[in-house]
Amino acid sequence: MAHENPWPNEGNTGHIWDEDIRELDYPPPLWWMLAFYAGFVMIVFYALYYPTVPTPTGHTKGLAGWTAMTEYKDDFEILNKWRAEKFAAQEQALAEKTVEEILADKSLVDYAVATSRATFGDYCAACHGAGGAGNVGYPILADDDWLYGGDVNTIYQTLVMGRNGNMPAYGAMLSSEQIGNVADFVIAMSQGKAEAEAVAAGREVYNSIGCAGCHMPDGSGMPVLGAARLNDKVWRFSGDRAEVMKTIAKGVNATGEKNTRYAVMPAFQGRLGDKEVKRLSIYVHSLGGGK
Amino acid sequence: MDTVVKPQYNDGVVKAFTLAAIVFLVLGTFFGTYAASELAWPFLNFDTAEITFGRLRVIHTNTVIYAFGGNVLMATAFYIVQRTNGRPLYSNKLAWVQFFAFQIGLLLAVISLALGMSQVKEYHELEWPLDIAVAIVWLLFTFNFTMTIAERDKQKVPHIYVANWFFFGLLIMVTYLWVLNGLSVPVSLFRSYSMFSGVQDAMIQWWWGHNAVGFFLTAGFLGIMYYFVPKQAQRPIYSYRLSVVHFWALMFGYVWLGAHHLQYTALPDWVGSLGAVISLAMIIPSWGGALNGMLTLSGAWDRLRTDYILRFLIMSLAFYAMSTFEGPVMAAKSVNALSHYTDWTVGHVHSGALGWVAMVSIGAVYHMTMKLWKTEMYSMSLINFHFWLATIGTVFYIVAMWVSGIMQGLMWRAYDDYGTLAYTFAESVAAMHPYYVMRAIGGMLFATGAAVMLFNMVMTIRMANARQTQLAHA
Amino acid sequence: MAVQKPKNLQEWMEQNVFALMFGTALAVSVATIVEIVPLFYLDDTYEHTAKDESGNLKSPELLWNRGDKRLFYKDESGNWVSDWKAGDGVRPFTPLELAGKDIFMREHCMYCHSQMIRPFRDERERYGHYSLGTESIYDHPFQWGSKRTGPDLARVGGKYSNEWHFMHLKRPQDLVPESVMPAYPWLAENSIENDFFNTKRDMKARLEAMRLMGVPYTQEDIDNADEAIKGYTEMDAVIAYMQVLGTMVKLDDNKVYRE
Ligand code: HEM
Ligand code: HEM
Ligand SMILES: [Ca+2]
Ligand SMILES: [Ca+2]
Ligand SMILES: [Cu+2]
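That is the input. Now the predicted structure with calcium ion docked in place:
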């Protein structure tokens, strides 16, 4: 039993459990013990070097003067220095010039485009698609059809202030038959058949109820309001008849209308800063091929 | 025949815990594999709330850690404590109460998590009623275990065996942590809010979080190692002194590490540094445990060729050594700056969870199955097959996550020639796809291995029962 | 043979299970005391309570100076509005935002999205100013997260429109084809007034619990809490929560908030 050590010459502790579990009493390997003590020494040095130990009123500061904040600052300094060395002129120009002036400078444009790719991907692509290819409900930026205008200054304005295009809901004003007629007319317009006899009823409503006031009698749109061009094949939302009827009935960002089409472009100047916004304006301008 | 009168052990309840553990291993790894597949092929979410990635992930972690891990710990603790103290359980009845309460609790846990009832604290998700129920089960466990030791025959067994010390560490620390981190104010039966907020809540959560790792997934399983490795290898433990240093270093040291989960966050710098340096220092004590196990095997190496169970045990020690090296490295500030938030962490988790926790448990369960049902296994070659499925599955998993994790970290911080960010976040998501597929395949291998094990066990038990009836009729 | 007297402390604990228990409990307590207790008494745990050398608060502006301003109320046209404006400082969540956080928690979004921007230059450029502790002072529980399968959300408020969030949560891949985020179409169908099993989502009880834990809701806030989520869906609530994240404080890159 326990007090009889069946393996007296094994160097064991003499303890035994469950019939045959024994313990040898070798010392831990030397390298292990040394490393174990080295661990304590390391803790002491580390604790002296970094802010580590709490005190009743604060904590030790560490000899290295390291804090997460100093590291942050240092890393940014390295980056900024690197940028300054290679691109100080460009960065300064971006900060000082207006977007139109930047656009006039070919090398600056190339620079702005090259430095915008990731920002566009992280901040804009979620709505406007990768490369500005557009998404359902979000305008294509990589074409030459613009709601507000594709000149760089307008794009810049769009980014600075955001956009919130507004079209009233006509659901309460027009019968669904009338809405169907206008929709037919709008679709005909997009196919260049605005004069067709079949859509006369719709044309009549279009011109009398106020559509023409924003979209112009010929459907060419009104960029200051962001009123879409209706006489081309590019659809902001959809050219499907039911969808067009929905746009007309529910409007766009129409106040008080629950199922209206929402079209909110957030403002980015506060979030990204002016220089970034200029950069992106140039980038977006380059996507559409410039107008 | 043996003339020594063997103590009568309460093995019925141990059998029950053992079987439950393997059933949950199959379920838990299936959930994990499915969650992994959802990241590789998102359509698998099927727009079904209960199985969307977010909810399935916590179902996975809770089933593998608490249902599988918990049942393994309870099975082995009761198995070991009886044998190393030469007496039956203090209360067999209480053990059965614990068994049923625990399984019912686990069932409710899975259902409630699928419904989304959760405190949303990592590894401490269960809402307050279940939270309290778990604490009560745990106290029952602690009480029964402690009293079994306390009432041993001190003449026969003067010393408490080292495996039991580690179980003690587990029992005490988990009670302590679980209760503190769980403090919350209920607003309905299904929702409570943590009593702490912000920085303090973060630190208390990760003080628990790391020690769920350090005590639940490590200390308890080291207890398993200290019993089953010498038993299976039929060799004495290499060094008693190493056991002592290892034990106290772990008990004292692990508790400091929580802060390494919060480096560079809004947690004050000094806490992060403290967590980091003690993490680094923990390599050696952790390796002490691995070393003690491996050196115990020295002299029995030749048996590895034929003893598949021993293979699981030795592989688990290798992974334990590896993940306790990797962990401290990841705790170093500059490494953590890269690895935090990435799949590297997930890879590290699973080299510990699959390689260490699951493998050591599997070895122990095979060993126990034969002892408890007093039989050979139905198929030894299936154990070998399982060994390779588990090992290759684990390697697939962690290699995939190392690559994807480091790649993620590097892509996020990469600057291009213009000094602007080189990649968008979405590009990093797209780049992960091949690795998510590889991980899912690794998971499938591992989960298949678990299913093979369950099959092997069921057949073994049926065989044993058939023999019993034959004997009875003879 | 009689049990030998223990030779040392270790042996005593090896023989007496209660001594072992006590010893273990002692060993695991040290770190707890050293690492956690100071966080409750040190001023610089949070930026708004941190002081400079002369003992003055360094950044008291981080916290909303509420006075008798109202957190939320109904204006003449029946819309919910607030006297607080974005950038005015950290404030408690409105009932709708808090209910949105409930949904965020139910879906376990935190296991893919962190809400903790670290002070690194790349995170500054991708997500915005690093997160402050003060920003989560009313967050019971905190939502910093530990994994970025998706991007950090600490400053997602205002980055997108409500409509975008709506479309994105309904089917992320429609907007971001490479996304691995699940779709959450049911959020748009469920009323936020209902909690699990169609029980009432008791916002009053929620705000009261928060007040108990030190979140400064007024009695008026609590009285109107249930009213303030009437008629909204779970989707509306999550979006309200998304849109407030990171907008509470206005941060200055030239100021160092932490030491
Ligand atoms: C001395 C040993 C160890 C140290 C110092 C250590 C350190 C770490 C570190 C630094 C992280 C990453 C934290 C982050 O950046 O978010 C981590 C995560 C983790 N480790 Fe270890 N580790 C050790 C051993 C283990 C073992 C043996 C396991 C066994 C399963 C394990 C399981 C985990 C888990 C589950 C996480 C993920 C926590 C989370 O974010 O949810 N660790 N560990
Ligand atoms: C077939 C085997 C398994 C597969 C395929 C698997 C898969 C997964 C997946 C996909 C995740 C989520 C990771 C993410 O968010 O990106 C996860 C998390 C986790 N799993 Fe597993 N798992 C398996 C087995 C296990 C086992 C056996 C354990 C524990 C004993 C375990 C413990 C964990 C833990 C602790 C986490 C959380 C990690 C963190 O928060 O960082 N898993 N697993
Ligand atoms: Ca366009
Ligand atoms: Ca995690
Ligand atoms: Cu940890």
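The longest strand of chain C covers residues 73-74.
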